[in-house]
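Hey team,

Filing this mostly as a record. A colleague (T.K.) asked me to run one chain through the structure pipeline before their review meeting, and I want the input and output archived in the tracker in case anyone asks later how it was produced. No errors, nothing strange. Just documentation.

Input sequence:
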Amino acid sequence: MTKPTVPALEGWFTLDAEKPHLIGTQCKSCGTYYFPKQSVFCKNPDCNGEAFDEVQLSRTGKVWSFTNACYQPPEPYVSADPFVPYTIIAVELEKEKMIVLGQAVEGVDVSQLKAGMGVELVLEKLFEDEQSVKLTWKWKPVA
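Output structure:
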């Protein structure tokens, strides 16, 4: 029997397998984008906005920075057992020009990355429990 796939973080990204998007917000007053979602007040010091639209953020961007995670993060993060090191990428989103962190897809390490290279958002398994397969967003280099 196949387990259902569910988001590891509900409401943070779409589950479109072909073209997933992170879900953020945009201030109605000044246009500033936020991820994760902002809903109380705009953090832009030049804005007093308190109203936001939910938006799908860019699926593509450029590598801004990257590093490897060679230690097991503390709870509540759930990692493979035994722990397997992974790569973290900071990506400047194409339209929003904001930086969003995420893991690189499985099999990509720091030796394959360089600042300025293009990446796209994809969904990949984060972990699996008895009830379901938990998905998260990851960054995949594009040719």
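Quick notes for T.K.: The chain is about 0% helix and 40% strand. The first strand starts at residue 5 and ends at 7.
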